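#struct-pred
JK: can someone run the complex with CKX? inputs below
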Amino acid sequence: MLEHSMLYPVATVSRRLSSMDGMWKFCLDGQGAGEKENWGGGIPGKDLIPVPASFQDFYTEKDVREFAGDFWYEKDAFVPGEWKDKRVFLRFGAATHRAAVYVNGKKITEHEGGFLPFLADITDAVSYDSYNKIVVKVNNELTVTNIPCGETCVLPNGKKMNKPYFDFFNYAGLQRSVHLLAIPKEHVFDFDLDYEISGKNAKIRYSVKTTGEHPVSVSLLDEKGVEVASSEGKDGVIDVADARLWQVRNAYLYHLIIRITDDDGIVDEYGQKIGIRTIQIKGTSILVNGEPVYLKGFGKHEDCDVVGRGFHIGMMKRDFELMKWIGANSFRTAHYPYSEEIYQMADEEGFLVIDEVAAVGMFESLMNFMEASTGKKTAFFEKETTPLLLKAHKKAIEELIARDKNHPCVIAWSLLNEPETTNEAAVPYFKEVFDWAHELDVQKRPRTFALIMNSVPGECKCYAFSDIIALNRYYGWYVKGGYEISEAEMMFRKEMDAWKELRLNKPFIFTEYGADTLGLEHKLPSVMWSQEYQEEYLDMTNEVFDSYDFIKGEQIWNFADFQTTEGILRVNGNKKGIFTRQRQPKDAAYLLRKRWKKLPLDYKS
Ligand code: CKX
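RT: done, structure tokens with the ligand placed:
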């Protein structure tokens, strides 16, 4: 059981919310002096930095951008006297990768894991009707006992350096919003929903957890705010007559209001938008509301100029507009849980989301994108430290499901990206992780993981755990690129034939495929990295997709160019974007648009 509620923060008749976003004092702690010098009571210097944002790309010094270690934030928070009878929390949308929170010099809590929210209960540490000093120590070091995986080394000059086993820049900081939150002592802690649709009507089975014993009622409002159904009790069924369903790219959202009451009235009220829909896997089909869907879309990143991985509301809007323009209907939150606002937007816009936990880099390699096709083995799940990693991974899955389970957009959980699966030692690890997700999710959504290139039939020991087989494949890029593309196609078809032979009777989707392309590079005839080659690569790949009935989705890598660690194979980042990092289309965007606008939602059903 989670210590604190994962509900999205809202203000209601019983709850108060104030934003702590804005400029915070900021200081790097290269010498690890902060603890000894009690920075928890106040940090040195005068530098100010925006929250939410990654810290790395604001500064002009390379030592700052590449910094690995502790760094500190500080801001004063006014806590109103009217909040005295409530519990007061600080809520962090995320602190990457771990944080310790201090209030008025007193350490309140710590949290591990950089992409999920946490609460610090500061009720007993604050002074009311006055300003309180909030200090947060954040740390961005990578290890193999936490996700995402990597290592932190010390250079001969004594400076630390992060070495990710993954292909995105290790952005860090207070990358999502921070709130002050006051909620009643007896409050709504969590709720689960499950749906059954019969004809025009729907049943919503619900279960509410509270921190007390007073009666609970639930009320369902339509988009106009009119109550259309209600129920009493912590557990029950809401009958919805003439239910409007949440459909792909045609979303209808109801507002669910949960109330705790006593003789004097409302003790606590919490509200969230929900959508009525079902998800099932039947044979090779993915069914939404009983109808087959074909996924078209992207593996994405939260990544943009200047703010790095910081939540950027404008960029979010632009990304959804571009996804609509190109005819996409889905995306995977590669390679970590995204900001909560992105799921809210996907709920509103009717996008299907494969929600990924930050279990990436489970293949010990600083260049897994090159080595994945070589058959290299790293015995990743046989380390002495694997039990610690598993513990952290399961905790992240628990927090992810608690946070995102009531978003209609979330249709599947992606529990790992490109782990090493060619070794038997991976099997018990996978079993724990897959069983855990099944146990936690009341809706029993499909579970999947993205298979790295050498996870092929005969080699991969873990694909059977997946309800949807999700392949990351780069035939024509990492494997036989350029003039050898015809051989790439043969190898690609050979692999798909081998999967077909297995008669798994499960849907297959591509969660990655793509070719690095420089936004301004043209060459006729094509060469790799040119826009022409990206289109040739796509023509070949799409033909293969169209040849196999059990392939039920294509999510190209990547939506946009993104920042990575520097290196001889990355030209200031990964350039597989269909859009540039500034969100303008490459030529291939028009090719995909033509294809995706034509493909019906029930393609291959
Ligand atoms: N997949 C062979 C994981 C992504 C990378 C992508 C790439 C790799 C390919 C692995 O995070 O960016 O190399 O483009």
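RT: quick notes.
The chain has a mean pLDDT of 97.
The longest helix spans residues 386-404.
JK: thanks, will look after standup
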